[in-house]
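Renewal narrative, Specific Aim 1. Our central claim is that a sequence can be written position by position from structural information alone. The example that follows is taken directly from our test logs and has not been curated for this report. It begins with the structure tokens describing the chain, in the order in which they were read.
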């Protein structure tokens, strides 16, 4: 693969510098999800581990069909049939109550419906890609706020619920009179803002943002993302941000996890992943964007298409598209392995067993606390 100029992106300086050390609020351990049963089952999520820490923005990236939305919907038990969770645990750690020494942790995969109802929206909320589908078209935005607050904040009076609706809409850059509108009377950007306001209504500790701005034009997308990150800094919720657009995550996230064909391929602090990717798939995703400065060059992208989950290639599922695939890649599936002291992890045979790491995947990252295993091997 030829040497390329770095993509024209700028990694975000994390507002919460201590998020990597903050305590976990949501832990997904060994999650497995299938579509269908028995020999017909398609493995959509395989043995995935994620840790979302308080105040952190964790980015989950990958092409369509990589399993990222399935993973997040399974984690909060909103997966639709024929999706089946076949293993793992999802631990939600609520804020401890003063004076109560018992462990408040809830395994969402084993929680009963009443517990789930308490957690969803109040503690963990979701913003979906299409607000038009998520909002109720036959009642006003105000009535939808009212319904939500009536159930979860029964002590509020009708006028207090209205005032809270106005406050929430203003928080996301809309005027309070939009409470009287129906969703079809709002633009795409306003609908998405209304969804975000609704997701914030109960001050959740976690927000799952599933491609929240994908359907919007780039200007509206930028405005909404800036507002969202401002709200995150102000309100302190943790966010799991799911998108196929790695360029967005580089700017928004503290940490990024890259997913391919149902498995995690790479995990790293956002800036490290941007400056020095270790896995060929991440490298390909980062080079799918045209350079904004310097000489004009054709985009390289990633050859081929994501695999059909019903007939995955043997070994590393990425091998038919990987320019550095080796014999071993066709036979054995790599597992996510820690590479260095920064906590960076990769599932790629290039980084184990003495393989020669190509220069593109052995860049020294000035942000790393020490040289990575890959860099050490190349330097020898
Ligand atoms: Fe490429 Fe092999 Fe690494 Fe898979 S394991 S990404 S095929 S080098």
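The sequence written for that structure reads:
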């Amino acid at each position: 693969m030829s040497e390329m100029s770095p993509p024209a992106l700028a990694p975000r300086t994390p507002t919460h510098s201590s998020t990597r050390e903050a305590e976990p609020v949501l832990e997904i351990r060994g999650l497995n999800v299938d579509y269908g049963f028995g020999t017909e089952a398609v493995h959509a999520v395989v043995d995935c581990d994620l840790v979302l820490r308080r105040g952190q923005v964790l980015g989950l990236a990958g092409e369509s069909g990589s399993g990222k939305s399935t993973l997040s919907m399974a984690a909060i038990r909103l997966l639709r049939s024929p999706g089946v969770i076949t293993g793992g645990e999802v631990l939600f750690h609520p804020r401890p109550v003063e004076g109560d020494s018992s462990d408040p942790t809830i395994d969402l995969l084993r929680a009963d419906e009443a517990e789930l109802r308490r957690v969803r929206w109040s503690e963990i909320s979701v913003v979906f890609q299409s607000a038009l589908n998520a909002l109720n078209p036959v009642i006003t935005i105000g009535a939808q706020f009212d319904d939500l607050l009536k159930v979860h904040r029964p002590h509020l009076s009708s006028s207090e619920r209205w005032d809270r609706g106005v406050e929430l809409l203003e928080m996301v850059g809309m005027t309070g009179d939009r409470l009287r509108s129906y969703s079809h009377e709002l633009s795409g950007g306003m609908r998405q803002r209304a969804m975000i306001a609704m997701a914030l209504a109960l001050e959740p500790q976690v927000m799952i943002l599933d491609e929240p701005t994908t359907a919007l034009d780039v200007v509206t997308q930028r405005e909404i993302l800036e507002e969202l990150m401002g709200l995150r800094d102000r309100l302190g919720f943790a966010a799991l941000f799911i998108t196929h657009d790695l360029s967005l995550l580089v700017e928004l996230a503290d940490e990024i996890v890259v997913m391919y064909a149902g498995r995690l391929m790479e995990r790293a602090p956002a800036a490290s992943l941007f400056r020095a990717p270790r896995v060929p798939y991440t490298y390909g995703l980062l080079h799918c964007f045209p350079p904004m400065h310097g000489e004009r060059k054709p985009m390289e992208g990633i050859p081929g298409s994501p695999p059909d989950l019903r007939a995955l290639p043997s070994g590393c599922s990425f091998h038919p598209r990987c320019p550095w695939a080796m014999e071993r890649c066709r036979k054995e599936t790599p597992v996510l392995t820690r590479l260095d002291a920064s906590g960076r992890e990769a599932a790629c045979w290039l980084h184990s067993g003495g393989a020669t790491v190509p220069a593109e995947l052995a860049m020294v990252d000035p942000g790393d606390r020490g040289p990575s295993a890959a860099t050490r091997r190349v330097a020898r």
